[in-house]
Specification:
The chain is α+β, with helices and mostly antiparallel strands. It is built from eight helices and six strands; from the N terminus they run ββααββααββαααα. The structure holds zinc ion.
């Protein structure tokens, strides 16, 4: 028996641990084409990096990742100081542990979105962003009005 967030009781037939492992492996493989986008960040994640697996997701913080997330490429997109955290498939990177804690709910929504869309997620995200920017006639809407970001921000206001 599982209680969902909105309090509805849902009955599932008990799954054997073998089936659960197969489902989890399939989930990782399905998202792998997006998770590999994190590979180029590996050198930044090594020096003084903190790694942990949380709910099937690799969470990494490091000083070099902090520098990367505050770079002009992200400042242009966010219209502010860059990003506190970012998600690539089953990998979340953040500036530091505090940012990871504050962003965890939001970023795990992006993980679920990746699991929904699989390899098509980057294309879907960019398309949604371009559509939002075109509708609003301003570039910052790419991020702020992007449907995937709106869904993630909405989740932050829910009890977890
Ligand atoms: Zn986001």
């Amino acid at each position: 028996m599982v209680v969902s967030k909105n309090g509805i009781y849902v009955n599932f037939a008990p799954m054997s641990s073998v089936i659960i492992r197969i489902v989890n492996a399939a989930r990782v493989l399905w998202v792998a084409p997006v998770s590999v986008f994190a590979l180029p960040l590996l050198p930044l994640a090594l020096w003084r990096g903190k790694w942990r697996v949380n709910n099937g997701v690799l969470e990494i913080v490091s000083p070099a990742l902090s520098w990367f997330l505050q770079g002009p490429w992200f400042r242009a997109m966010s219209g502010g100081t860059g990003f506190a955290a970012a998600t690539m498939g089953h990998v979340i990177v953040a500036r530091d542990s505090g940012c990871m804690d504050r962003c965890r709910v939001h970023e795990h929504v992006h993980v679920r979105q990746c699991e929904r869309w699989g390899a098509l997620f980057p294309l879907a995200y960019v398309s949604a962003g371009l559509y939002a920017a075109w509708r609003a006639r301003r570039w910052s809407a790419y991020y702020w009005d992007n449907q995937f970001e709106r869904e993630a921000r909405a989740a932050e206001n829910l009890p977890v």
